[in-house]
Design brief:
Elements: E1 2-7, H1 14-24, E2 34-39, H2 42-52, E3 58-61, H3 78-83, E4 88-91, H4 94-99, H5 104-116, E5 120-125, H6 129-133, H7 137-145, E6 155-158, H8 172-185, E7 190-194, H9 202-205, E8 213-216, H10 223-233
Parallel strand pairs: 1-2, 1-8, 2-3, 3-4, 4-5, 5-6, 6-7, 7-8
This protein binds phosphoenolpyruvate.
Phosphoenolpyruvate binds near residues 165, 194, 215 and 219.
Length: about 240
């Protein structure tokens, strides 16, 4: 099974999200081969769930908090997300790490709490451009994933920070090396690739057999682009 995850980030109102999934669910998606997951803003999760609940499309949150309840103004717990129809949580996206100072420790706490509450974590990691240029990719990834060393069965998304929203992607053998490295390190892991996935590069990326799917930002905002990426991922 391949995964294609739409990370809408802070885009689309509730009605725009509803319109998108209402059209998407009418498409003939290869859903025996590709698991389609939409990650809208928190407020759109439940309204979208009402539209897709009898389909094979699933929902992810873009973030989650690690406490289960209590005085944490503005935060949302795994249990609340599940009650809204959400099955997955994207955790540790580089925008959260960089803009909101999320540390490896916080990300790990979010992972543990999500798992405990049966929300399936999708853990993001990836190096910055200076680190890539220095040849430090694997050592950065080692640090980011150190706390996960004794875990297994995790869905990861390898997202080089310099590739997000830039149109640049690593060389195919570089992506393959990172994915092989993570799969060796953490048993039974699923590793997606994210960073400027679009209709121009999806066929090339789909040739890398070890990639288990894609986390798609910008190109997931347009229904036709996203649908084509899902279809091409299944080839
Ligand atoms: C992302 O932010 O997760 C992402 C992959 O973005 P983009 O596809 O726009 O590079």
């Amino acid at each position: 099974m391949k995964y294609v995850v739409a990370n809408w980030k802070m885009n689309k109102t509730i009605s725009e999200g509803i319109e998108f999934v209402s059209m998407l669910k009418k498409e003939n998606l290869p859903d025996d081969i590709v698991k389609t997951i939409i990650a809208p803003s928190f407020i759109s999760i439940n309204p979208i769930f009402e539209i897709i609940k009898n389909t094979k499309i699933s929902l992810a949150s873009q973030n989650v908090f690690y406490e289960e309840e209590g005085p944490y103004t503005g935060e949302i717990s795994p249990l609340m997300l599940r009650s809204a129809g959400c099955e997955y949580a994207i955790i540790g996206h580089s925008e959260r790490r960089i803009l909101f100072n999320e540390s490896n420790e916080i990300i790990f706490k979010k992972y543990i709490s999500s798992k405990k509450n049966l929300l399936i974590p999708i853990i993001c990691f990836g190096e910055k451009y200076e680190e890539y240029k220095k040849g430090a990719t694997i050592s950065v990834i080692n640090d980011q994933l150190e706390l996960f060393n004794n875990e297994n069965n995790i869905i990861f998304a390898y997202e080089p920070v310099w590739s997000i929203g830039t149109g640049l992607i690593p060389k195919m053998n570089e992506i393959q090396n990172v994915i092989d490295y993570v799969k060796n390190k953490i048993k039974n892991s699923v590793v997606l690739y994210g960073g400027s996935v679009n209709l121009k590069n999806i066929e090339e990326l789909a040739k890398i057999e070890v990639i288990d799917g894609y986390l798609v930002g910008g190109a997931s905002l347009d229904l036709n682009n996203f649908k084509e990426i899902i279809i091409k991922s299944s080839c």
